[in-house]
Automatic annotation (TrEMBL):
One of its GO terms (cellular component) is mitochondrion. Belongs to the class-IV pyridoxal-phosphate-dependent aminotransferase family. This is Branched-chain-amino-acid aminotransferase. It comes from Mytilinidion resinicola. Residues 29-48 are annotated as: Disordered.
Length: 445
């Protein structure tokens, strides 16, 4: 049976299952942020669906008591006695993406006892059984965030509430327990405040750490079933900048072929689950062996453009009527991720460029044949990708069915609009512009 057929027959069951999952886990409340055009985001669990009216309870002597929720107020702190060494800037250790900070957050959940008190403890290995659900059934989801050392000396997160809300949506999609996103944010902030000063010293502004909140099913029952145990953990790691011209020189993309599908309507492409990434690595490896940086994922007979690797994809082109458009794939089919950087690009473009009549911001399906036609007719202005890892990275070339589309780099290493939007975001992230999206972390002295 094709992925399309599966989606058609099970989409209602999946929606019902997600609603039931929320209703059966500990009480959690998430306020869904509206999308940039004022319409509720179709990819995320709505606030009303995330409120449990019948949370699990412990019954003792005829009295029902709600199970404990995830709570940062119950955090146990045990600082490491063996602090780790901070690698030098630009060192191979940072490039390896394996060096983590001194501490991590952990919190265990079981269906019978709810959430245990979380802990801030020394970074180290996890202990799970060989039969753990995550190892066999991909019951895992995660988030990608960054902690920035601003040029004003402050530590900042960038719109972290969106990451925490999205992680709740992902846990619901993968049959993992619900939680209050605000409590997750408090735990992340505590970890940042504890390790930030050492690992992002004030004399190195412009640096960052990569934050990886993760939830895995640790249930040791081997049967295919909804997990009854889970582990939430948060780590921070050193990460190289992946958006510089010296690293990229403009990304080169290889458009996927008819036998390659990353995500499909009714699937889970919109959730940040591990199962979205592992199956794409073979194609990605083949693309790199041919001299490309990432796969540009297309979908269906019309070759609709979706994502580039694990990043959202943007095009600036001129319409046949001469109007300049910033265009990206829509969220409605739940094929692409509702990226935090994507959402921010759209909101900035709408408020700072579209408002002034410089361009039109469009979220709609578009295909490679449209893109190729714009290129041939000289209407293709520039392309870029957005995401936490690659930030804003320009595209210099797209290979589609053996044809090469060379994209202009009017600013030397990127397009004009790419550079403008990237500068706006960078200024917010590193404190050069005071903005509500910059979440200041009060660090320890």
């Amino acid at each position: 049976m094709s992925p399309m057929a599966i989606a058609t027959t099970t989409s209602n069951l999946t929606a019902q299952g997600i609603a039931s999952s929320v209703d059966k886990t500990a009480h959690s409340l998430v306020t869904e942020s509206s999308s940039s055009n004022g319409v509720s985001n179709g990819n995320s669990t709505k606030a009303a669906d995330a409120i449990t009216n019948g949370a699990p309870k412990i019954v003792s002597n005829g009295t029902a008591t709600p199970l404990p929720e995830l709570s940062a107020a119950r955090l146990n702190i045990a600082l490491t006695s063996n602090p780790r060494t901070v690698p030098a800037a630009g060192s191979p250790e940072i490039a390896s993406q394996k060096v983590c900070t001194d501490h991590m957050i952990q919190a265990r959940w079981t269906v019978s006892h709810g959430w245990d008190a979380p802990s801030l403890q020394a970074y180290g290995p996890l202990s799970i059984m060989p039969t753990a659900s995550v190892l066999h059934y991909a019951t895992e989801c995660f988030e990608g965030m960054k902690l920035y050392r601003g040029y004003d000396g402050k530590l900042r997160l960038f719109r972290p509430n969106l990451n925490c809300n999205r992680m709740l949506m992902s846990t619901n999609r993968i049959a993992l327990p619900a939680f209050n996103p605000e409590e997750l944010l408090k735990l992340i902030v505590k970890l940042c405040a504890t390790d930030g000063a050492k690992w992002l010293p004030k004399d190195q502004p412009g640096a960052f750490l990569y934050i990886r909140p993760t939830m895995i099913a640790t249930d040791s029952a081997l049967g295919v079933q909804r997990p009854k145990e889970a582990l939430l953990y948060v780590i921070m790691t050193m990460f190289p900048a992946m958006d510089t011209s010296s690293t990229l020189g403009g990304m080169k993309l290889l458009a996927s072929k008819d036998d390659m599908v990353r995500a499909w309507p009714g699937g889970f492409g919109y959730a940040k689950v591990g199962a979205n990434y592992g199956p794409s690595l073979v194609a990605q490896g083949e693309a790199r062996a041919q001299g490309f940086d990432q796969i540009l994922w297309l979908f269906g007979e019309k070759c609709n453009v979706t994502e580039a690797g694990a990043s959202n994809f943007f095009v600036v082109w001129k319409t046949k009527e001469g109007k300049t458009q910033l265009i990206t794939a829509p969220l409605g089919d739940k094929i692409i991720l509702d990226g935090v950087t994507r959402r921010s690009v759209l909101e900035l473009a709408r408020t700072r460029l579209e408002k002034d009549g410089e361009l039109e911001v469009v979220e709609r399906k578009f295909d490679m044949f449209e893109l190729e036609e714009a290129y041939v007719e000289g209407r293709l202005v520039e392309c870029f990708v957005s995401g936490t890892a690659f930030f804003i990275a320009p595209i210099s070339l797209i290979n589609f069915r053996g044809k090469e589309l060379n994209v202009d780099m009017k600013e030397g290493d990127m397009g004009t609009y790419t550079k403008t939007i990237k500068t706006w975001l960078r200024n917010i992230m590193w404190g050069k512009e005071q903005h509500e999206w910059g979440y200041v972390v009060e660090e320890k002295a």
